[in-house]
């Protein structure tokens, strides 16, 4: 496994976990490479994958570093590859050789239509959380900038008053001869 980095393997396992048919949400802090795997049982199932990096724990600044997500099939062939992204969503159809009854196909279509609605709701909620954090940080910066500018304006006014008084005191002192 020298050709594969630990990060790639870990993210491929993460992707496979996200490919589970029932909807599942996982929240974790990644400070190293993680690997996940899951078997998908039915041919033709559409697997939906999404991720959003909501908050990066960097105390000094906001970081735009994303994650790498690699999806592989059981034979090791790469299905999807996302590199250095803070958010992404995609879907693909599972390819597996098995026979299904038409009834299962119709049920799967109905189930997928309902799942798509839940998937979009989850995606929009995660994006909203991410934007709320960004807006809060930008608002805090704007308030700090306004306070700094106000303090600088007051300091400049005080210096001007001092210099004008000093100027007039000297002029009055020299003209009284």
TrEMBL record:
- Topology of this chain in the membrane: Single-pass type I membrane protein
Q: Name one GO cellular component term.
A: membrane
Q: Where is the GOLD domain?
A: 25-169
Keyword vocabulary terms for this entry? Membrane, Signal, Transmembrane, Transmembrane helix
Q: Which organism is it from?
A: Dichanthelium oligosanthes
Assign the protein's first listed, main location to one coarse class.
membrane
Where does the record place it? Answer: Membrane
**Region forming the signal peptide:** 1-25
Which family, according to UniProt? Belongs to the EMP24/GP25L family.
List, alphabetically, the InterPro entries matched.
Answer: Emp24-like, GOLD_dom
Protein name in the entry: Transmembrane emp24 domain-containing protein p24beta2
